[in-house]
Structures are given as C-alpha cells and as structure tokens.
Amino acid sequence: MTAGIFAQQASGATSPARSVTWRHVALFVITGIVLYLTLVPLAVILFGTFTNGPPGSHAAFTLRNYARAFGNPELLYSGIHSIIFAVASGIIAFVVGGFLAWVTERTNTPLKAILYGLALFPFVVPSILTTIAWIFLLAPNAGVVNHFFRAIFGVAPFNVFSFAGMIWAFGIDHITLPFLLLAAAFRSMDPTLEEAALVSGMSRMRCFFHVNVKIMFPSILATCILLFIRGIETFEAPALIGIPAAVKVFATDIFMALRDTPTDYNLAATFAVPYVALSMAGVLFYLHVTRVAERFATITGKAYQPRVIDLGGWRYLTLALALVCLFVAVVMPVGVILWTSLLPYYSRPSYQMLHMLTLSNYTAVFNLSVFYRALTNNLIAGTIAATLAVMLSVGVAWIVVRTDFYGKKLLDTVAFAPIALPGVVIGLALIWVYLTLPVPIYGTLWILVIGYVTILMPISLRIVHASLLQLHKELEEAAEIANPSWWRNTMFVLLPLILPGLLVAWLYVLTLTFKILSVPILLSHVGTQVLPVVIFGLFESGEYSQLSAIGIILIVAICSIAGLARLISLRFAVPTKS
Fold it and tell me: How many domains does the structure of the chain reveal?
C-alpha cells in the first residue's frame, strides 16, 4: 500500500497497480545505478586516503597520506598552476570563440558558412592530436613556426615546453565550446533593446558593452565556468607538454603517482581530494548561474529576428581576422599532422621534402595488429557505453521531467556532477573500487565501459532532457487512456517520439569515446588499449609518422559519426521561425 502510494506520487498520475509497480521499480533502479556510478567511486577513493595500504588489502587507518600530500609545497604549486592554467587557457578560448560567434551571428561578414564550419572542426579532432600538433609547430628546435621565424628574423621565439606553451595548446584547441554557446546567445537576442539604446544616443561600442554584454551575462559567465572546469580536469596538454616542461598540475600529480614504481595509490587518492573539490566548486557555481538565468531572459512571445550589423568596408577586416584565427586554430594543427602522416619520418614542411611524400605509413598502420585491436576495443567499449549512457539518461530525464519524485532535483544534480570529475580521478576511483570489491572486471573492457558511462552520462543527459521537454505530456496521457500499461507506452510511444534525440546523444557519446585519453590511460592494459592510448604510446616511443596516420584515420572516422549525428538532428529538428 505504501509503495503504491509513493509510486503514484512519483508518476504524477493514478494508474493501475501493475503500471505503478513498473514505475516504482524503474525509479529506484535508475536512482540506484546513478548513485552507484557517481558516489561509490568517490566514497571508496576517499576511504583510501585514510589507509596505509593499496586497494583490496587489509590496511590500517592513518592520516599520513594527508601529511605527505599537504606537507609537500609542490601540491600548493600544482594547485596554483591548475587554476592559472584553467583561467588563462579559458581566456584564450573565450576571446577567439566569442569573436567568431559575433562575426558569424551578428555581422554581415562574408563567407560566414565557411567560418562556421571551420569553427566547429576542433570538435572532431582529439585533444591529444592537437597537443602533439602544437609540439610539432612550436618545439624550440624542430618546430615549424620557430623554423619560419628563425629563417626570417634570426630568432626562434616560441617554446611549447613551457607553462605558456601548455596554456596556448589547450586554449586554442577549445574555441568550439564558447563559439557554440555564445553563438546561441547572440542568435536569441532581441534587437529592440539595442535599437532603443542607439536611438537614445548611445554609440555602438557603448551599446555592445552596456546592453549586449549585460543581457548575455549569464551565458558569458556559464561559458567561462565551463571552460574553467574543462581546464581543471584536462589531461592531454599537461601530460604531453607539462611533464617534459616540469610544470605540475593536479592531473599530472595523480598520473605520476600511479606511474611511479611502486605505485602509490594512497598518495594519488589524496592528490585527488583538492582536485575534485576545485572542480565541484566550479560545477556548483555553474548550476547556480544557470538557475538564475531567467532573470536575464529577453525572448518573448513577439516575433523578432536578430539584427545583423552592417560593417561596411570593415567586414573584410573581420573576415581576415576570423580567417587568421581559424588558420592558426584549425588549419595549422591538422595540416602538420597530415603532412607528418605522409612522410617516412618527421620533418618540417619544405619543397625538398615533397618528393618524400608517401602513403606507406597508412599501409603500415593497416598492417598493425595493435591498431585493429585498439579500433575494435574502441568500437565495442564505445558502443556499449553510449547505449548504457543513453538508457540511463532516458531514465533520469523521465524522472526529472515527468514525475513529482521528491528528490528529482538532487538526482539531476548528482547525475550531472561527473562532468566536473576529472578523467584521471574517475580512472583512479574505478581502480580503487574494482580492486577492492569482488567484481572481476579490472583489466577488462568492462571497467573502461563504466568509466566512459560515468564521465559521459552528463552530456547525453542534457541532450535527452531537451528532447523530452519538447514532447508534450498530453501525448503520453492519451496513450495511457488507450493502454494503461506504462511499460508498453514507454517502449512504443515515448521512446519512438524522442528517438532522433536519442540517436544524436548516442552518436555524440560514441564520438567522445574516440577522443578521451584521461580515462583509458589509467584503465587500459595490454589487449584492452584504445586508439588514444595507442597514439600516446607511439608519441612516447617517437613514432610520429605512424601516430599521425592513425590520427588522420581517427579524424575521418569521428567526422563521419559527427556528420551522421548532424544529419539526424537536421532531419528531425522541429522547425522554428527566427
């Protein structure tokens, strides 16, 4: 009786006992899985900070790990470096991405379709490849850009193996995030507010800062916070550039603690505590900002079209600046990777090297058993992880949007929280969990699948949540009148209606499993490597030509998956008037 009443409250509607039971079971199973994926690993890793033994061993309680970690001044330096790195790289990404968003959405700059496409391209290039590309470009001796400056000016001004080089490589690689978020904000801005300001005598420059920027403040702040979170939790640039440059951040502290022999799991877990605290602070601030965003809403029921600013002759200057930004951010990194993939060994681009161009690296890659094994592992783990992430996202979104469950806001927050958990922390936490619990999945693809689901579920959840919000509840209510079975209505009415959104979320998550390095670098073993781990290994062994060939193949594969997701979203998108 009590269970039936509770389930009836959770569903928000009365229905037969059988339907209520299914809803009750689904609600608690989904909630339990989400809590297990997010809270259990963190609880276990926190427990490990208070023990003096590795995971799965009988260890005694101790505070020595905190004394070792926080008594070492290098941890303070790592924290300061992490914050400076996240802020500085975020500024680079925000300025470039914001400028491109303004150019493409609010001005009459020519070739906007080309600019838009190029601004999206960094999304399909794995960060490990972009980082390696900037090493090829800005290495102090062999870098392409330094060679160019040395030939003309007699000096080589850049050194990628520095704190500034690490900041630049990450910042310029992440222009797509602010571009997309700010482009949407520019697109939805009511022009009457600008017109009123201009009529009152305000200059265009003052209008931009006193009207546009203030109206977009929640979007700007949310974008900055997301860039900060991404900078805090990233691994590729700190590992490939920061470690050789002796610039430590939290991510590399954990990685090196796990890589050293003997492995110090307890110290690594202790390093993760301030790391997670800093990331979670960013997420909580982001959630607060997005919750108060409605105070700044300017979209009303009145029809309007965002105003395009006529720049006159200045539009060619904005076009030139945008092309320069995209040439530096997109063409140069991808170009140097493509060039290296066509050479038998790495060399700077030159006329003399043209006769050395060959496809032998691609032939060699297709003859590598490790490539096929890594590709197969990527496809298997990615497919399963994408399916599980979308299934969980459907359940969480249904609870949040369609039920009156008392704890649904907390569930939504907990399900979204892993977006703040750095990949190396997820990997370390799963190592602790599955070396402690009697579940034999450590060293298999299944632990990698769990890692992918945990870290990517928040992303699929946002897509599925938006799709479910677009579906009016009256369609489900009509289905319940015709057939009271909640399970059948969910399977044959609800899911088919939001299927396009589910496919987009599934393809998006699958795409990201080909790009992430931080999770598999800790969880992969011999026989379970995935492509980013293989590329990392080839880089460490100096096989630059082969890793570049694999990188180009990976970019083509990701482009194909992303293009399919784009076609599905366009094909089934709800048409709206601008």
Answer: 2
